[in-house]
Amino acid sequence: MGATWLGIACGIGAGALWGLVFLAPELASAFTPLQLAAGRYLAYGLFAVLLVLPRWHALRAGLGLREWWALAWLSLLGNILYYALLATAVQMGGMAMTSLVIGFLPVAVTVIGSRDHGAVPVRKLVPSLLLGAAGILCIGWQSVGDAQTGMPMAEMTGLLCAVGALVSWTVYAVGNSRWLARLGHVSAHDWSLLTGVVTGAQALLLAVPAFLFAQGGHAAGEWLRFAAVVTGLAILASIVGNALWNRMSRLLPLTLVGQMILFETLFALLYGFLWEQRLPTGMELAALVCVTGSVLSCVAAHRPKPPETARQPAPA
């Protein structure tokens, strides 16, 4: 179980760093979500290039066309497309609806992982899945109750974008875990850096419409704050967070990897409480308990059975 607990620790660390992403719109509120996404991934790509340069020749020798193609679609689905769909869903459908849909990521990844050879059967994961779903429902319950209804077409578009983001990151999580299992000669950190290089190249295409067609200018102080926010996200959330996630993906089965996504939601809530300088409400506290119970019950389901002691013949 040592590797399991190390993997869980890496998952908690990744969730703690990824939760910072939800603070970015508050810290740089003068910029659009697309501008934040473009800035974050451009910075991610730049730092990834600098870090991967000393080992570039050795890494390139171990990667073929199939691996670069995998990096391209993983970067697109897990970073560019996911963030763009998520930002659009929040703008058109609201944070409550989006968080409810995205919150089912652990369920989707865990159910897919249960189909792998030798995986824990889904019937043993039912308590964990139910607790995770209950936690997400608690998080969005009061927000949904207080949400104001807008244009039906805008809400429907937001819902479709949220579902698209759910599908996009689910495919990324499953595909990334399986590629890491195949590439034993590439470290989890190097795979994260290579993903950053490809994501940075893709972000160049996103930056053109994000900044060129944006309306209104920004003061010098706003640009400095924007640069600090996207640099922090690139280093903490993208480079360190992704490296921890990839390390965890090699240590844990896919059925347990799915539950680790809950820590991003958990830490995003905690950061929100600190930012708003308040204590959690009853529903939010119930969500924290459900999320914790979901992960612990999933760990218990993966605990190996103790070997049965062979019966010794009774003495004559």
From TrEMBL:
UniProt membrane topology term: Multi-pass membrane protein
Parts of the chain that traverse the membrane: 38-56, 68-86, 92-113, 125-144, 156-181, 193-214, 226-245, 252-273, 285-302
Q: Which residues form the EamA domain?
A: 6-139
The cellular component terms of Gene Ontology attached to this UniProt record, alphabetical and capped at eight, are: membrane
Q: A single Pfam family, by name?
A: EamA
Q: Which UniProt keywords apply?
A: Membrane, Transmembrane, Transmembrane helix
Q: Which domain of life is it from?
A: Bacteria
Subcellular location(s) per record: Membrane
Entry similarity comment: Belongs to the EamA transporter family.
Protein name as annotated: EamA family transporter
Q: Which organism is it from?
A: Azospirillum argentinense
